[in-house]
Amino acid sequence: MATQNQMSGLRIVIIAPADALDQDWITGLQSESSVNVLARVGVLQRGIEAVQQHQPNILLIDRPVEQIEETLSVAYAVAPQTLCVAVLPQQDMAAVRRLVSAGARDILIKPLHHRDMLASLRQVVQMEDARRQRAGQPALLALQQRKALGKVIVVMGPKGGVGSTTVATNLAVALKHVGGHDVALADFSLQFGDVGVLLNLWSKHTLHDLAIHYDTIDDGLLDRVLVPHASGVKVLLAPGEPELSADMSGVQVNAIIKALRSRFAYVVVDCWSFLDEITETLMAAADQVLLVTTPEIPALKNSKQALEYFTRHGVHKDHVALVLNRFPSVKGVTLQDIQQHLRHPVQANLPSDGPAVTYAANKGIPVVQSHPQSWVAQSFLKLAAWVAGDTVETISQGPAGAALPTLAEPKPVKAKWRLGLRKSGS
Ligand SMILES: Nc1ncnc2c1ncn2[C@@H]1O[C@H](COP(=O)(O)OP(=O)(O)O)[C@@H](O)[C@H]1O
Ligand SMILES: [Mg+2]
Predict the structure, then answer these.
(1) Residue from 156, 166, 192, 371 to probe ligand 1 pocket by mutation (most atoms less than 8 Å from CB)
(2) Residue 10 belongs to what H/E stretch?
C-alpha cells in the first residue's frame, strides 16, 4: 500500500464550469501541500490541452454528463496514464453508469469536502498502482518522479536597472499564486544580488553554502539554505559578500540548478548582466530565458547584442522570450520598431508603475502582493500564466477595463534614426 509520503505531490488538472472555478473544494485542493493543481480551467478544449501538456495523475471533471463522457475519451487518448474522476451535482444512477462505461475511475457527488475528495483520489491512485504492480509496471508516482524535472526560467537584463530582479521576484511569487506550484527563486546576481532586499529576507546561509558543498547537496542542506518567503516560494539568496562569488564555476552552477530542478516545478533564476561562465551555464540549463529590456535605445542596443550572442552560443531562439518592461512609455519607441529592430517578437510587456513598484521595493513586498489589482501586478500574473503554459494575452496597452492611455507621439523620427544607425551595422 502506498504511504502518505509516496502519495505526496499528486498532480491534478481540474476542469470545471467557467463560472465555478472558485468552488470550496477546488480552492481547498489547491491549498493542500500534498497536491499540485497544475491547471484549473473553465474551457474544455483548454482542459484537454492542459492534460496533454502536464500528463497529470488525476483529471477531475465537473461538467454536465455528456461533456464529461466526451472529455474522458479524448483525455485517455492524449494522456493514457491519467486517471479521470468525474464530479456530479447529485446522485444519478443513469449518469454514473454512463460515466463508468466511458472510463471514469471514480464518481464523486456534491457537496464535496476537499479532504474527503483527497482520500478518494488517493484510493484511486492506490488501486491503479496495485494493478500496475500486478502487471509489472512502475507505480504512477514513480513514473512522475522520473520525468518531473522542474522548469528553469532564467531572467536576465542585458543592461543593469531594466528590471530583471523585479521581474524574477514577482514572476516567482506569481507562479506560486497562479498554479500553486513548488517554486524556487535563485539569486545568481552573485555580487550585489538584491532578491533578499526585494522580498525582505535575510539568512546567513546563501548560494555560497551550496557552491562549496556542490557535490553533496541533499535535502538537509537545501532545507538549511533555502529561505521560505510568505508566498510559499523558497529563496536561494546571493552570497552576502561580493568576493564570495569570485571562483564560482559552471560545474558548481550546474550542480545547484540540478538539485533545485529535481525538487521544484519551477526554478526562477535572476542573473546579472555579464555574459560570463555563470550566465552561460544558466542559459544552457534554461528551459526558458526571459530577456528583460525597456523601450530605450541603450537597453535595446544591449538586448540586440545579447540576442545575437545567444544565437552564436547555441541558445535556441524559441527559448528566449523578450519581456518589455516599463512599456508603454510616453517617450519610448513603439512596439513595432522594437520587434523589427531586435528581429525577435516581444512576448510580454509590463507597464511602468513607479509608485507601486517603488513602494513594494522599499517595503520588501513584491508588487503582485502589495498591489494585486494594479495593471503591473496583473501583467505579472499573466506572464506567470504564460510561463506555466497557459494561452494568455500577455501584451497589453492599457489596464484591464480602463480606457487606453493616450500616449504622446514617441518622437518616432529620432528613435528610428538611432535604431536604423545600429541596424546598418555602423
Ligand atoms: N515596471 C516598473 N515600474 C516602475 N519601476 C520599475 C519597474 N520595473 C523596475 N522598476 C524599478 O527599476 C529599478 C531597477 O529594477 P531592478 O529590478 O533592480 O533591475 P535590474 O535587476 O535589472 O538591475 C528599481 O528601482 C525598480 O523598482
Ligand atoms: Mg538585479
Answers:
(1) 166
(2) strand 10-15
Decide which of 145, 162, 182 is a domain's last residue.
145
Contacts of 146 (CB under 8 A, 6+ apart): none
- The answer to whether residues 212 and 295 belong to one domain is yes
Instruction: Identify whether residues 112 and 203 lie together within a single domain.
Output: no
Please give all residues whose CB falls under 5 A of ion ligand 2, grouped by chain where several chains appear: 164-165, 189
Same domain, 24 and 126: yes
Closest ligand to the CA of 166: 1
- The per-residue pLDDT for range 100-124, each reduced to its tens digit, is 999 999 999 999 999 999 999 999 9
Element (H, E) at 63: none
Residues with CB under 6 A from ligand 1: 157, 160-166, 325-326, 350, 352-354, 357-358, 361, 376
Which atom of ligand 1 is least distant from the CA of 161? 23
Parallel, antiparallel or unpaired: strands 288-293 and 320-325: parallel
> How many CB atoms within 10 Å of residue 254?
15
Domain that holds residue 55: 4-145
The pLDDT, as a whole number, for residue 412 is 37
Q: Measure 36 CA to ligand 1 centroid, in angstroms.
A: 31
- Read off the CATH number of the domain in which 345 is found: 3.40.50.300
Angle at 362 between CA 203 and CA 189, to 5 degrees: 50
pLDDT in tens, 131-148: 988 888 777 766 555 445
The residue whose C-alpha atom lies closest to atom 16 belonging to ligand 1 is 163
Residue 401: pLDDT band (50, 70, 90) is: low
pTM above 0.90, yes or no: no
pLDDT digits (tens, 9 = 90+) for 29-66: 988 877 888 899 888 888 898 898 889 999 999 999 99
Residue 314 banded pLDDT, cuts 50, 70, 90? confident
